[in-house]
Amino acid sequence: MSSPHGSWPSPFSAASVAASSPRIDGARFVGSEIWWGESVPAEKGRVTVRSSSGAEILPSPWGARSRVHEYGGGAWTVDPAGVLYFVDAGDQRVHRLVAGAEPVPLTPVGPAHGGLRVQGGRLLAVREDLSTAPHTRAIVEIPIDGSAAEDASGVRVIAEGDGFFAHPALSPDGGRVAWISWNRGRMPWEAAHLQIAQSDGSDVHEIPTRAALQPEWLSETELMFADDPDDRWGLYRLELDGASPVGAPRALSPADADTGYGLWVLGNRWYRPLTDGRIVATRTNGRDEVVLISPDGAARPIDIPADGHVSIDDVDGSRVLLSGSGSGVTAGLWCIDVESGATVAVRGGEPVDAEWMPRAVPIEVDGRHGVVHAFAYPPANPDATAPADELPPYVVLVHGGPTAHVTGAASAANAFYTSRGIGVLDVNYGGSTGYGRAYRERLDGRWGVVDVDDVIAAAQGLADAGLADPSRIAIRGGSAGGWTVLSALVRGGAFAAGISRYGVADLRMLVAETHDFEASYIDGLVGPLPEYEHIYVERSPLTHADRIGVPVLLLQGGEDRVVPPSQSEAIRDALAARGVDHEYVLYPTEGHGFRSADTIIDALERELIFLGRVFGFEPTL
Questions:
Q1: Mean pLDDT (10-residue bins), the chain, 621 residues
Q2: pTM of the model
Q3: What DSSP string describes 71-130?
Q4: Helix or strand run (H / E) with residue 438
Q5: Helix ranges, 351-436 (H)
Q6: How far apart are CA 602 and CA 211, in angstroms?
């Protein structure tokens, strides 16, 4: 069947996208079962905990979600006996749940908690208290008997301050704790410290590191962690005498890839030690691979379906739990046996139909600041073709962060477009992770310049290659990606339409309104105030909204505390004052990122209708 690009009939409805691949939030071996966290879009994104036996461990209306650092993470864990510990999404208190009983609070009302970890029968967490001035955070040990549920003095504080903390790890003998910390004014991928102390918080030692991640105890006298002193995050061993370091950290199996990522959430795990001394680790260079590293540093790849944002969630003997996405499978959770090679998809992870969802093509284009990495998803529909003389429209996707990256994963959300005859180009502009520190730091001081140049170069590369209709290329992004969308529209000439989801429009407004974790983020991306205020004004899309001359769709969450509605509404008002074609949609109960199925469905359908109206095709919903 021949019909114009954009109007092809598709089995990928917005509702099917909302109900597609599960969003896995950690996984654990529990006896003979496997437990995992999973977002439920039909219940407004509530995160439940499920079991491989088919049981729902955390029943409605309870939901596990942390707000520490706003992005949360590590909102649940479980001990070997199957006792669940979780942070309730509503009150941010830690609760204990025993099978057959009601959840019991373990912490008092007030502070938020995240990064939960049970080791040796003891519960460690990151605590954040926004009621103090300045706000305080801490590594704490929470009594599991409930004795501190009403009195915070019963919670042992191991380390505390007005900076930030992550990844508490208890030594095998229970006498020492290691963790990651970083100061206000820095982001963890810029500078983060490894610290070790006695478990009562005494005898603290700070290890010289550049951007440390995820300490794990290999034995009573040896600690492992990730760091990036030489451009790439890699694994390091550190000998200890008590809590004191003995010598300098030693690199284990260096590679031209990253074992690590931007520390946005507290639950990420990029490697796990096995009991026999080997290490299972993720390595990222654009896409991910998982390797098995011997004590001598020799590494061999493990054949797994996942190759994007892989988290090494748990280990048990030779079995490993991995969650992530894949270029040939849906997102999911797998159990891998590193000895036999057996692979079991525990949740999701189904192979995709290559006729409808072919693998993304990694591309590189030359930009003003160096090579630009991206993944292209051409239109694909086995039942439809376009007229021979018609080039497809494209949507250029700009990820958030901006210290983040995309991996070319199979995606029902992308197939929603490609199956209708609209190509998708997902760009890892300069500043993205996954290509080393030098590529990541390309954006330093030049946010709103390098990212815009790079997405324009990527779009132009498609058009120059004759793969995309240059007059029908749209740009779409959320949060920091929304900033790049609006900045590119201000630049003009490359994109015929823009879709901004909770995008940043004014830097001074962002700094004034955003939360603690990112309060100093812009210092590195643009420069500190007040001396760089003129740059803040000059770079902000709101300053030059009069240069936007193409249609814009603005989508915003009403409860967004990272990029509040005032940002999107300022752009809306500027466009309305000039009569520029635009739409503004506010989802009152959504925060930073859309979680509810109803919102996901409505937003996707609005985007498709918007593109059809702008690009002159009749979409099928």
A1: 91 91 91 96 91 96 95 96 97 96 96 96 96 93 95 93 97 96 94 96 94 97 96 96 90 97 94 96 97 96 95 97 95 96 95 92 96 97 93 97 95 95 98 96 97 98 95 96 97 96 92 85 94 96 95 95 90 96 96 89 96 95 87
A2: 0.94
A3: T----EEE-TT--EEEEBTTT--EEEE-TTS--EE-S-SS-EEEEEEEETTEEEEEEEET
A4: helix 437-440
A5: 412-418
A6: 40
